Amino acid sequence: MLAGLLSKYLPVFKVDIACFYHSITETEISKENLKKISLRMTFTNQFPILKTCTYLNTAYSGILSEPLLNWRRTHDLNFFEHGSAFRLHQAEFLQEVKVALASFFKAEAARTFLVPNFSFGFNTFLGGLNASHRFLLLQEDYPSVNFAVTGRGFANECLPVDAHLEENILAKIKVFKPTVFAFSLVQYINGIKFDAVFLKKIKEQFPDLLIVADGTQFCGTERFDFEQSGLDVLIASGYKWMLGGYGNGFVFLKEEVASRLYQSGQQIAHPKEPFLKDKSLLSLYFEPGHQDTLAFGSLLQSVLMLENIGQDVIESTIKELTDQAKKAFTERGLLHPVVAERQNHSSIFSLNLPEKIYRKLTEAGIGCTFRGAGIRVSFHFYNTAQNLAHLLKVIDQNR
Fold first, then answer.
1. CA–CA gap between residue 90 and residue 292 (Å, rounded)
2. How far is C-alpha 291 from the chain's CA centre?
3. Angle CA(24)–CA(27)–CA(33) in degrees, nearest 5?
4. pTM of the full structure
5. How far apart are CA 108 and CA 234, in angstroms?
6. CA of residue 191 relative to chain centroid, distance
7. What SS3 state is found at 213?
8. Which among 145, 127, 101 has a CA at the least distance from the CA of 251?
9. Rg of the chain over CA atoms, in angstroms?
10. CATH class of the domain whose range is 90-306
């Protein structure tokens, strides 16, 4: 599905994308060579900020590639030169964005919706539910998850994220009997990640439970098949690991969930205006008003770039560096025991270090965030072992 879009839109990237692969030919790109490819890649030409700092802050914000910057300039130049004619085919273009996202994450384009961010998408989802729903939440999860639920008055209970997280979730579901489990696939402060097998296990044991995930800190880091997953709903912003810039996000719904949302709206007459007559009921709720082709076009360009690099390459590169980082952090006693003992972790780490070390890191040109009770660092595919070594050197010199 993405092949056609790659050939249609990738000309903007053709010259630059070659730098990703150096002299590697298409025939050399195989599973056996993924590791070799990832080690030979360099991204400084595509992401110039990497030349001036050690960027370990993707969990806060993804960075903008030079090819995407060029595309955005061309986009706005077309608007400047053509005015309203520039928007004549925006509906078809936005549909192509949906198709690309659905193909990338193995979802259904018909149940894919473009939203400005996770918060808008999640609140719109909540607005389509009956008020009698009961939510299971996680303590210290992203505020846009928890406050959206508690602020609407839904019955809820929160579980602590501790060493027995998975067992506690299953036990709490049996006792509390929630109708919705809403959470972040990757916890934004400490990087704890939910295992796909565990989520399938929840769905198998509790098939009527709606499992709703914030994928903002997950999407773009590894291959994911939404339709085969245990999730019923996946919502994410595109400005972090998707590298799509600000103002874009997406919603994926399973078929059975889509039919349960905004049921009262099915009894109301839909707009008859020509520019709205083809919109579905859920599109009227999730995608009201105009949509920004700059924001969603940027997300499309990033999806095509990630697809061109290769999801397996991205995943293996991140995993290799994450394993190295976790080992080094554990040896230095920088991780909470809950994180250190988990086998499956994301590339986000909260380091038990004081704010004075954070200042030293920023002075050394290391992009990171003082979040919660420690310093949060995160590694994407464009980071390297040298970046990790630089981080460790500054920490060791200042502890």
1. 9
2. 20
3. 65
4. 0.90
5. 12
6. 13
7. strand
8. 101
9. 22
10. alpha beta
Tokens of 11: 């000309």
The label of the residue with tokens 């009262």 reads 264
Q: Are strands 233-237 and 249-253 parallel, antiparallel or unpaired?
A: antiparallel
The whole-angstrom separation of Cα 330 and Cα 89 is 53
Q: Please report the DSSP string for 126-161 in residue order.
A: HHTS-TT-EEEEETT--HHHHHHHHTTT-EEEEE--
Nearest Cα neighbor of 114 from 250, 240, 244, 220 is: 250
Quick check: 6 and 308 in contact, CB under 8 A? yes
Listed in sequence order, the residues at least 6 apart from 243 whose beta carbon sits closer than 8 Å to its beta carbon are 62, 63, 64, 65, 68, 220, 302, 305, 306
Kindly state the tokens that stand for 244. Answer: 């799509």
E strands, 7-81, in order:
54-55
- Token pair of 382, please? 């464009």
If the chain, 399 residues long, is cut into consecutive pieces of 10 residues, what is the mean pLDDT of each piece? 59 36 41 47 86 97 97 96 93 96 98 98 97 97 97 97 93 98 97 95 97 98 97 98 98 95 80 75 94 97 96 95 97 96 94 96 97 92 96 97
